[in-house]
Amino acid sequence: MSALTDGLGSLHPGAQLFAMLDGEVVVDLAIGDSRLDLHTPMSGETLTLFLSAGKPLTAAAIALLHDQGLLSFEDAVAKHIPEFGVNGKEQITIRHLLTHTAGIRALDTQYPFLTWQETLGRIYNMKPERDWVAGEKAGYHQHTSWYVLGEIINRVAGVSFDRWIYARILLPLGMSDVHFSLTAEEYDSYEKARRLGYLYDTAPKPNAQEFSAPRPIPNYDTVLGASRPRPSASARGPIKQLALFYEMLRNGGRTKAGEQLLWPETVTLMTTRQRVGMFDQTFRQTIDWSLGLILNSSQYGPAIPYQFGPHASASTYGHGGSQSSTGFCDPERKLVVGLLFNGTPGEPAHDKRLRATLKALYEDLHFA
């Protein structure tokens, strides 16, 4: 697939592409290098950061607690985290967090140098943005609201969100190599097996015209970075395993082994429009959202970011990772896809290669 290889070496050292059609694997491809320092080829088993493409896993954990009767999407966050309900945040609900309408975007989390509690303490002290009424204004929350969702899981489940998600969602789905955090021993084990890939910065340097030589992104692919879970962005694994999550959603919450992981009604909330026609103050575009996932919003124009290619059906849902990855389901096509580039070349270059690759994939599968 030339669309995947066109940027190889300049936009990204390596890439993974995986697709299933009606439950059958139709693409399982890995190209290029996962680690330039070790001259390690990319494989389908390489673990690379998903960044925000892992957000739906945290959303699914909240959904599972909802199914267990331990919380409601309409609960005020302060019901579960009293410390949060100050400085005008008393009315913010779990639904607001999942639909990016809470109005608490602007905070430098200084990841990974602050501890979990230090980060949460700064979020608790925040005030909503000026003229922002929760639920009435929208703007993508990169990290803040997701730390709060992670803390809700911690308190309601009684165990750290990263380990709870691993035990209750990832293992049942066969996603045993996807992790929100790694102990030093786990990190060392994957490192010795040469299965840990790096995510590289490939964007042009200031005032440069050409793309730069790939540089590891500071603090991400380190023992410290891997040890500190971030509900918004620290999940890493083979992209083929993320596709298993979308196959579960496509099957109404049922795993391949037949376990009903999420109730079908809850899957509907996670995969259909819960935030409709709202202008996103972060992306500066109108984008529809479910409870935790981005929905195909091509009806609002051709330049919507982090979409699913020109041939995706209107009901397609998923989530992208910053300048690097995506996972999604196109239910009308019975198609699930995981795609990861291990280079971040800047938003315009990533958008171009993402659209080209997904266009070619659909055409190769005769969906054009």
Walkthrough of the structure:
It is a single chain. The protein contains twelve helices and 14 strands. The protein has helices spanning 2-5, 55-67, 77-80, 94-98, 116-124, 144-157, 161-170, 184-192, 223-227, 239-250, 264-271, 347-364; strands at 14-21, 24-35, 40-41, 48-49, 200-201, 215-216, 236-237, 279-280, 285-286, 294-295, 317-321, 325-330, 335-341, 343-344. Helix content is 30%, strand content 15%. The strands form four sheets. A seven-stranded antiparallel β-sheet has the order 3-2-1-13-12-11-10, with helices on one face. A three-stranded mixed β-sheet has the order 6-5-14, with no helix packed on it. Strands 4-7 form a two-stranded antiparallel sheet. By secondary structure, it is of the alpha+beta class. A hairpin with a 4-residue loop joins strand 8 and strand 9. It has one domain: Beta-lactamase (3-Layer(aba) Sandwich), CATH 3.40.710.10.
